[in-house]
Amino acid sequence: MFSSKRLFFVVIVLAIVLGSGYFWRVYENEKRVYQDLQIKIDAFVLELKEMRLGLYRSSIQVNNDSLSKSVTQVKAKFSDLKQSVAQTDEYALQCMLDEEVAHVYDYTKAIQKYQSAHAIIKNSVSYLKNIYYEELSSHQTMIQDESLLLIDKILLGYYADDMQVQALNFEVLKKEKNPLLLLHVKQILKQYKKIKKIKVLLLEIEKRSYETLHVLRVKAESIVLKVDETNRIIVIVLFASTTLLLLFALNAYVSLRRQNRRILVLQKELEQFFEAFNYSAIISKSDVNGNITYANDLFCKVSGYSREELIGQNHRIVRHPDMPKEVFSQLWAQISKGEHFHAILKNKNKKGHPYYVDTYISPIYDVDGSIIEYIAVRYDVTELVHARDEAISAHQSKDEFFASMSHELRTPLNAIVGFSELLRKKLQGSEHKVHVDNIAQSSKLLLHLINDILDLAKIKSGKFTISKEAFSLKKEIEKMFERFKPQAQKAGITLGYICSCDEKINLYADWIRISQVYTNILSNALKFTPEGGKIECYITYKEGILEATFRDTGIGMDDKAIKNIFSAYVQGDSSTTKKYGGTGLGLSISKDLIEMMDGRLDVISAPEKGSTFSVILPVPTASTEHVQVEQSTRDEHFEGHLLVAEDNKTNQLLISMMLEEYGLSCDIVENGEMCIEQYEPDKYKLVLMDVDMPVMGGIEAMKALHEKYEKMVPIIALTANVMRGDKERFLQEGMDDFIAKPIEEADLKRVLSHYLA
Question: Same structural domain for residues 452 and 485?
Fold first, then answer.
């Protein structure tokens, strides 16, 4: 119900609630203490004021008992105040109150002096009053009138509480013969002066007391305010925490209800999932020794065994003998370490018939993390395996078809291209040479189309490979543009290039494929640039990056056409195909080739504004071991007699005529068996061997010749099998060199120069 995080949250909130309640009670008690202190301070101040009022009443109303009672009340109130301050544990307040003790002592002492002075005055006034009454009631003059008038003023000032001592003339009393009268008047004068000083002292003491009491009260009020503020915060926290607890409890209740419902839903879904899983997958469990402890219905159905026959048996009961033991060794090595195992296994059912299962095996752990069982989930993929085998077989058939198609198309093209070259050399008339050139050009276009189709097929099948070798960029670029100059001149197009690369630098890449990309782009530029147009090419090599930019002033393309030109068999639009022709393979193959070489092809174009193609390729420089020494050009005339194995009559005639051009003679046989019979060690200097021939092929004949003769002249494969890998395969079988059909004159001259030196 509760996760560890939620439980921690509840504990924290409960702690806040309980702590808030505790501190609220503590602060409330403290608040009551300081409120009581305020009351005690107010009561003490009130008593001080009451006592002061008593002091300043008229002298006749002065009652020593009343003042004594007030002093007692003041002391009592001060004692209560001291007890309240002691309860606060405030050291500063206690120190202030200790100072106030001295003030109260001085105050009460001054009051006692005040009472004593008033008592003396009252006694003297009583004496004067008696003398005054006697003088008024007697018919004899006892004292002088001036003295009687002075006594009258003293009595009137006393009872009116307005004694003006300084204004009285006491000199007249000295004339009287009554020393006691003079003594009482002097006492009144003396005590009034004393009272005046006492009043000043009382005012000072009261001032200090009121200041101290004011500070005490302000301090108490501030503490009460702080306590109120703290309690308000505590109440808010308490309310918020309680609300959170209530909300959490409500949420927990709702979540629990939802979880219960979700558990029921998941339980139902799990049952349905397990039912579907059981129906679609072969499930079994086994102990750590591989003995079956559980088997579902589908396992029983596929294997042909009943559940009773499977339980307790080892999984070897369904193992097919064709499966290598190493697979199961690897299986146990992985699952015993806690790893998962996945493979397609070949099993057998009860009748011994094979079936294939895509197998997943995982360990099952106990609470201590130890492996106690293994669960195996298998899917019957017998039909998929058969379909895969059929697809592989079909793919092999397709490859064989392409190889056969390539061979069959190149064989007649070999004659067309070869005889065209021979005729071009022998014919004198310019008109006939034009026709022969057209034939040669058409045959080369057809050969280029065949190569494009085969390349595309190999790229899509994933069997296309890049072969790297050293080459001089400067020289190869010059050769490439020399081939295009006649075509550009004929079309009235200005063709120029700049190659900013050191002639001494050799690069290491597949130049054949790079030149194929460049050739496709240049061919398109020549095709779509009108007469009077211009084609400019810039080739740079810097820091391992080969960049070639081709700009033309041709018809250009819109954005839609740019997207289409890299799709196989598609050009910019249908009108382009009708007007300019072409299959639309060139740029599609070029893009694939560039991506295979980890490069990038960028296009910028606009209708009627020409196009710019940029090819960027990462190309390293060639090391010394990659650079081969270029053979020197040899004389085009050689000496010697050759043996040629070729089954096609037309190609027999072509080869003999081409060899005659180099001053060579030859014997021609139609198959490998005849080649073995015809061959004599001292008669022939070279053997040109077709690969596909009736009765016996070239590879078989070559091997037989090597077995028969210890010292064998070079045997050259002369074949139309030019699929990627054919050349390497023939050389690995034992051929000394390779010439592809249609025969390129440069290729033939290279072989003759190398072996007939």
Answer: no
Terminal-residue alpha carbon distance, the chain: 94
Same domain, 23 and 130: yes
CA distance 653 to 641: 16
One domain, residues 503 and 607:
yes
Return d(Cα 615, Cα 514) in angstroms, integer.
10
Average pLDDT for the chain: 76
* Separation of alpha carbons 458 and 462, rounded Å: 6
In the numeric block, which tokens belong to residue 282? 């072969």
Q: Flag whether pLDDT at 576 surpasses 60.
A: no
Q: Is 446 part of a structural domain of the chain?
A: yes
Band of pLDDT at residue 502, cut at 50, 70 and 90: confident
d(CA 389, CA 391): 5
251 located within any domain: no
- Count of H-run helices and E-run strands, the chain: 20, 17
Distance of CA 468 to CAs 465, 597, 627, Å? Answer: 10, 10, 11
Look at the chain and report how many structural domains it folds into: 5
User: Does the residue 207 lie in any domain?
Assistant: yes
Domain identity same for 406 and 505: no
Length of the chain: 757
Neighbours of 167 (CB within 10 A): 8
What's the half-sphere exposure (Cβ side, CA atoms, 13 Å) at 448? 17
Mark whether 564 and 531 lie in a shared domain.
yes
Bridge partners of residue 738, in order along the sequence: 717
Query: pTM score, two decimals?
Result: 0.38
The verdict on 574 and 647 lying in the same domain is no
Per-residue HEC secondary structure of 478-546 comes to HHHHHHHHHHHHHCCCEEEEEEECCCCCEEEECHHHHHHHHHHHHHHHHHHCCCCCEEEEEEEEECCEE
What residue has token string 């702590």? Answer: 19
Distance CA 515, CA 507 (A): 13
Task: Summarize pLDDT for 20-48 with one digit per residue, the tens.
Answer: 666 667 666 666 766 676 676 676 667 66
Write the single-letter amino acid at 236: I
- Rounded to whole angstroms, the Cα distance separating 146 from 168 reads 11
Domain containing 588 — which CATH number?
Answer: 3.30.565.10
375: number of CA atoms within 13 Å, CB side? 7
Any domain includes 629:
no
Residues of the domain holding 656: 641-755
Residue from 463, 512, 514 nearest 726 by CA: 463
Per-residue pLDDT averaged across 224-249, rounded?
74
